[in-house]
Structures are given as structure tokens and as C-alpha cells.
Design goal:
The protein has 70 residues and is mainly β. It is built from no helices and six strands.
């Protein structure tokens, strides 16, 4: 369920996996889950519910739009 793709300042891709409620990121070794990796939805610091987009600020911090948690 990929929903959006964004790129960081180093050129690596990050994918919001909407149906699996997680964020997938790329690094020099390939792709891996970087946020909410257990695949369950929820409303706490370790879970997302239907993430729709992710963006980076100029310092490299990632911000996730999480539609299911408003």
C-alpha cells in the first residue's frame, strides 16, 4: 500500500506504506522499515494509522502526515 514517495537531502527514497501503517526508508544498504515497523495501526509513539506523506525539514528531521490519527 505505498501512498507517497519523498527524497531526503542525500538522495535516498522514503515511502509511506499506508496499508501497512509504516514508513520505509532507503540507505546505502537498501530499503528497510524506519517507523512503526510491527505493521499494526495505533495511536502512540511507536505506531501509525494510514500515513499519507512524509517530508524532511532542512535539518533532516522527518515529519509524517498520519491520516488515521488526525
Amino acid at each position: 500500500g505505498p501512498h507517497s514517495v519523498t527524497m531526503d537531502a542525500d538522495g535516498y527514497l522514503f515511502i509511506t506504506d499506508n496499508r501497512n501503517h509504516r514508513i520505509i526508508g532507503q540507505d546505502s544498504t537498501g530499503f528497510r522499515c524506519i517507523a512503526a515497523c510491527d505493521g499494526g495501526s495505533g495511536a502512540n509513539a511507536l505506531r501509525l494509522t494510514f500515513p499519507t506523506a512524509a517530508r524532511f525539514d532542512r535539518f533532516g528531521n522527518i515529519f509524517v502526515m498520519d491520516a488515521g490519527n488526525h
